[in-house]
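Q: Hi! First time doing this. I have a protein sequence and I read that you can turn it into a structure. Is that right? Here it is:
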Amino acid sequence: MRKLLLLLIATFSFFGSSAQWVRVLDKNTKRPIDFVYIFNTYGSSTTDPEGRADITPLGPDTASIYFQHPGYKTLEFTRSELKRTDFVVLLPQTELKLSEITVAANRWEKSTDQLPNQLAVVDRKEIKFQNPQTAADLLDLSGQVFIQKSQMGGGSPMIRGFATSRVLLVVDGVRMNNAIFREGNVQNVISLDPLSIKSTEILFGPGSVIYGSDALGGVMTFNTLKPQFQQSSSGLTELNATLRTASANFEKTGHFDLNLGGEKIAAVSSFTYTDYDDLIMGSHGPESYLRPEYQDRVNGVDVVVGNRDPKRQVATGYSQYNLMQKVAFKPNDHWYFEGAIHHSATSDIPRYDRLIQYRNGDLRFGDWYYGPQKWTMGKLDVDHKAPTLLYNELKVTTAFQRFEESRYSRAFGDNILEGQQERVDAWSINLDLRKVIAEGQRMYYGGEILLNQVSSTARNENINSGESTPAGTRYPDGSTWKTAAAYANYEMDLSSKWFLSAGARFTQVWIDASFDPTFYQLPFGRAQNRTGALNGMLGATYRPFSDTKIYMNLSTGFRAPNIDDIGKVFDSGDQIVVVPNTDLNAEYLYNAEAGILRTWKKRFQIEATAFVSFLSDAMARRPTTLNGMDSIIYRGDLSQVNSIQNVDQAFIAGAFLRLSADLNEHFSTSLEGTYTYGEASDGEPLRHVAPFFGRASVFFKHGWFKADLYAIYNGELTTEQLAPSELDKPYLYATDDNGDPYSPSWWTLNLKASYPVHKNLELSGGIENILDQRYRPYSSGIVAAGRNFILALRLHI
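A: Yes, that's right. Below is the predicted 3D structure, encoded as structure tokens:
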């Protein structure tokens, strides 16, 4: 009887006791680490900003508990072992790529251990240390994404030979690509604030099974800060503030984010303001990159002014602000509600690559700038966890986005400023469900509905008199782009070493556009386009040993035509005009990929990936006729008529290699490179295939101090390797010995470091382009920064 009573008391104590807390700290600095993923077969938990987490649900004392975080070694403890350390876990830093948690693969949190794809992750710790100025620069931190810039207020990612409307941007589970994402370079990614981003995940290769249209080259998922609930009776309040400057463009950035967390309600607020002056290029490089003169307007007359500092890229500066507000409500362990508002806006952004164009020996434009780029998103998430017949977890995401952009241009010496204004209202609803079918078998499925409405206006203004008149719009005003889709993805643990995943998605796309005959005489008045696409994926992961992962996958992707493809009327080049084409089909990508990730002795690691892709029915700009004529008068010039057509096929292949090592407690090193090759069916190079690029790094850490000395390298593209569309823009390139345009190779040496001067105050910064090289990344209109000193001060309370 006494033994039974003691057993009942012990059982009651185990199930009725208060929560068991664990605290996770950095082994070097003894600072708390947030967002540590703590898990085992019984459940999971995540640390708060104080490094605390409740591990009560994670089973008995003998169960193994895993502690996982990018940039740190994964450790394993039993609860009994944790008791001996007073439930304090010290995680050692590492430069090796270890198991991480991703949502990019299937819209749910998933360990990368079983993922049959190449994936890169940039976490908040890396963002703070490297100090990227924009979200485009943040993507560049991955070392696996090439960034093109037409102006300083820009950044167009290139992945596996694709860019712009052929790669997908996703923000907190909501697609950012809209109906007017163009074939040319887009700068929408700079609407995101890198200082409010928790992590960024880049999933390489087609992602159409989960994300639908546009996900050909890859999917870039930006996960912004989430409200953190209190983990103890004291509640949770966290404040972060940043002041930063950089010398190359005299950056002035101020940021704060504040989290207030209760037991059931939590909120996070974020605000950032940045101002940039003109960008200064380096001292050592091609003379043709210099800016010897620039345009100005004096007493109502355009004049050419000699640049007293030809390294200063006059007319590149701009400013921007970002704000974010999220509120979350968690009434119990089953339900979670989160509402969010994002808003960003820029000042006017000069289009630098147009301002350096010449015609007949004279500057071509007096003005060329983008008007304020504005992005607003309102979002509501509902998450339900319960073991039901249809799902174990359900998520519903509804969102509204408004995109506003405009462009203004004026020929040098002309008084007429031509302006075009666009607005896209985008509604979306996503339903995602996760179901555990049986032990080792999981199903992810759901659907999506999207609606984009495009408003397009245009006016010409006499800048002297202020008089304005209507003009031809860039897109058919009032046009719509709609999609509806359903998908399913199945995963199965074939054994302890083999994992299989397979999925399919069907997407239907509708376009409806009416053309105003006032300014353009077209042979049609309305465009109605309907496109359907079935995509699939089959992947397998093999783990012969705990330190080795081998994966392979076959997948397809597609991109449906959008309003920009079908309905744009735009001066796309010198004496070339693009006209609408209503008879477009979707383009399809067929992809095969294989890779390996191997770690030796927990100190050395190799990661290698290779892929082959074939693109059919590719949409590309080609000559055509309009009303029987191959050339028309457009904006005063006789211009060749072009349109977007399904005329091309393309072959793309590439490889990625990364070698890394933890040499000892203080030093680590890494070396990585990306090579891509692509050509169209006629043998011509593809526009968005970047040159070989790579990164080499030596990282040092000791106590509170850490530093990274690294080099970035870009290979050369000869004249023969440039796409025909790039050869039409010689002003972007250097000139070889034959007088032909080419993209030279370049490399830079850089240093970053950080040190906490107080327990709540950290100083970080560095020197980029130490050797002051003058270089222009491939296809970019602006020359990169010269020697650049960065200084940031961060407060954490």
